[in-house]
Design brief:
The chain is of the alpha/beta class. It has four domains: 129 residues, Orthogonal Bundle (N-utilizing Substance Protein B Homolog, Chain A); 33 residues, no CATH class; 65 residues, 2-Layer Sandwich (Alpha-Beta Plaits); 201 residues, Rossmann fold (3-Layer(aba) Sandwich), CATH 3.40.50. It is built from 18 helices and twelve strands. Helix 15 links the parallel strand 6 and strand 7. Helix 1 packs parallel to helix 3.
Length: 456
């Protein structure tokens, strides 16, 4: 069996040096390394995700003790040091000597024996001086926040355009509050052997607890659960039988405010991996029809896998570019879900590498793309039907500005979502037909807006 730290180094080289996505790379690796124990898998996951999330702060620390700056180092040395320093500062169960010695061994095994002394020297210096590091002063807020929260400076500057320093720091803290484990939505009607929606959640909890999964209730919805203490989601009986779906609680807001009724026709235009389509299918309770679309065969296949697992037989899947109009769909659906490609600034807490892939100029380009898609797909809603627009970002251009654009440009009017919101989210902007959820307290940042087409 391979050394866990060696596996972690391979993942970090792919993510941080080659630009591959952390969640996908880690998932593929865990599936391939199926001989790892539960404890090893947990160690690997935390080490990789933590190192990626804290890379900016780790680089600052390393630069305090190394004459060669991180940016000038060989990739293997850079990622080995980042990984080792993460263990020194964030993994108390790992002795400092072990973090240092294992890093030196890794470098030697990678054919860089001549640099093993450098790695050893830097890490020994960090161990001796880690309590004397001088971090940027809060008076220089951008530098201070960038290092403290390991966040690219442009993102902090962007937040400061909309929020005060205190509010910005609250958002940054929210990214760090992402809990371990996953949040799931329980199907109340799909794959429910009792046929009684009221029994679905208790039955699912009983099944999970039989498998020693730690279960906690969601904070907003009675059908949401937070799960921890498990090895793999796909080993849970309730998941295999299609009784639950991994979905952040903020993402469940789309289904919660949709007003979907049995017998309706629902179109989800950018549906992969299918969480919102599945929520809609559960609300339809075996009636009506779901049309789920996405751009590639791979994404459509992912939707299909989830639909089949949940036993959904009233769903039609299409490979469809949302920017291209299908004339045969015009005026055809009761509810349209448009959860569109976005900058992802709301999910930094759950996708630790997204902050390195996104750039300021992307926001305007994405807002333009979203409007291009909305101009097309809005035509599929029949008069009196509902358009649901959502993103997983906190960018004004992609959220509030697009709400204004829809009202000014498309034949739609806002619909209040206030009464459908969880109690703790009321009293904000729900009556105006939209809501911005900021990241924190275990959930992602998210935006949802609801409109009705004119001409009933």
């Amino acid at each position: 069996m391979r050394n866990v730290r060696a596996i972690a180094l391979d993942i970090l080289l792919q993510v941080m040096e080659e630009g591959k996505y952390c969640d996908r790379t880690l998932h593929r690796t865990l599936n391939r390394e199926d001989t790892l124990s539960k404890q090893q898998r947990a160690f690997l996951t935390r080490l990789v995700e933590g190192t990626v999330e804290q890379a900016i702060r780790l680089d600052y620390i390393i630069d305090c003790f190394s004459k060669t700056k991180v940016v000038k180092m060989k990739p293997v040395i850079r990622e080995t040091l980042r990984m080792a320093v993460y263990q020194l500062f964030y993994m108390d169960q790992v002795p400092d000597s072990a973090a240092c010695n294992e890093a030196v061994k890794l470098v030697r095994k990678r054919g860089l024996k001549g640099l093993s002394g450098f790695v050893n020297g830097v890490l020994r210096s960090v161990i001796r001086g880690k309590d004397q590091i001088k971090y940027p002063d809060a008076k220089d807020f951008i530098s201070y926040a960038s290092i403290k929260y390991s966040m690219p400076g442009w993102i902090i500057e962007y937040f400061l355009e909309e929020y005060s320093e205190a509010e910005t720091e609250q958002i940054l803290q929210g990214f760090m509050q992402k809990e371990s484990g996953v949040t799931v939505r329980c199907n109340l009607n799909l794959q429910n052997p009792s046929g009684n929606p009221d029994l679905a959640v208790p039955e699912i909890i009983e099944s999970l607890e039989r498998q020693q999964v730690t279960v906690q209730p969601g904070k907003w919805f009675p059908y949401a659960l937070h799960l921890s203490g498990f090895e793999r989601v796909d080993s849970m009986e309730a998941f295999v039988r299609g009784r639950l779906q991994v979905q952040d609680e903020s993402s469940m807001l789309v289904g919660a405010v949709s007003g979907i009724k049995p017998g309706q026709e629902v179109l989800d235009v950018c549906a992969a991996p299918g969480g919102k389509s599945l929520h809609a299918a559960d609300l339809l309770a075996g009636t009506g029809v779901i049309f789920s679309c996405d751009l590639s065969e791979t994404k459509v296949h992912l939707i299909q896998e989830n639909m089949e697992r949940a036993g959904v037989d009233h769903c039609e899947l299409y490979r469809q570019n949302a920017r291209i109009l299908r004339k045969d769909w015009i005026d055809s659906v009761d509810v349209l879900i448009a959860d569109l490609p976005c900058s992802g600034l709301g999910v930094i807490g759950g996708k630790c590498d997204i902050k390195y892939h996104t750039h300021r100029e992307d926001i305007d380009e994405l807002a333009s793309l979203q409007r291009e898609i909305l101009r097309v797909v809005s035509q599929y809603v029949r008069p009196g039907g509902i358009l649901l627009y959502s993103t997983c970002t906190v960018a004004r251009e992609e959220n509030n500005d697009n709400v204004s654009w829809i009202k000014e440009t498309l034949p739609f009017v806002p619909v209040s979502i206030e009464e459908d919101l969880p109690e703790s989210l009321r009293g904000k902007t729900g009556k105006e037909g939209y809501l911005q959820v900021l990241p924190g307290n275990g959930s992602d940042g998210f935006f949802v807006a609801k409109f009705q087409r004119k001409g009933i």
